[in-house]
């Protein structure tokens, strides 16, 4: 092989290696974007579910604690939802416009309950929902690729953890 052909071969090999790295980086960025988009979809749907259930609690709750907690859910999750919507819009990531179907179904079932029966179902749902959403936000705050979404998740986590603590202290029945 002549020196010129060797250089061309070496140059071509370097191009292939470099382009492979670029493809891998694009794939990683795409995967990161998909994970962040999945977070936005799941977090926004969960927030809408909490707002819906919070409104039900203010209307159907049997205890003042449940009604007050329901109002907190509406206020806190609506505010977080607006913040997430603003961040997502700046990145052209769609947010959910409805709770997940399973959450909507549970809310519809709970809408027919009042008083102590509602309080028991609400407490159970709030504990389970907040445990699930804490895992979602923890994962995004740790592994998220988008700095703004990662910061949002990190900032929101203490409130979600506080909600879980409050939900666990709700009366099961009166």
TrEMBL record:
Transmembrane segments: none annotated. It comes from the Bacteria. InterPro entries: DUF4142, Ferritin-like. Residues 1-24 form the signal peptide. Keywords: Signal. Residues 35-170 form the DUF4142 domain. It holds the Pfam family DUF4142. This is DUF4142 domain-containing protein. It comes from Luteibacter yeojuensis.
């Amino acid at each position: 092989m002549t020196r010129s052909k060797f250089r061309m071969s070496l140059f071509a090999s370097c191009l292939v290696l470099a382009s492979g790295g670029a493809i891998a980086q694009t794939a990683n960025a795409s995967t990161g974007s998909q994970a962040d988009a999945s977070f936005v979809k799941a977090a926004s749907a969960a927030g809408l579910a909490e707002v819906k259930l919070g409104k039900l609690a203010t209307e159907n709750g049997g205890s003042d604690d449940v009604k007050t907690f329901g109002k907190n859910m509406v206020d806190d999750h609506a505010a977080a939802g607006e913040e997430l919507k603003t961040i997502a819009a700046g990145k052209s990531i769609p947010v959910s416009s409805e709770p997940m179907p399973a959450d909507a179904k549970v809310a519809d079932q709970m809408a027919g309950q009042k008083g102590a029966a509602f309080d028991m179902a609400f407490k159970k749902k709030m504990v389970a929902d907040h445990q699930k959403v804490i895992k979602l936000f923890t994962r995004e705050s740790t592994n998220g690729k988008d700095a703004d979404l990662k910061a949002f998740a990190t900032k929101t986590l203490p409130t979600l953890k506080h909600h879980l603590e409050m939900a666990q202290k709700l009366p099961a029945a009166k």
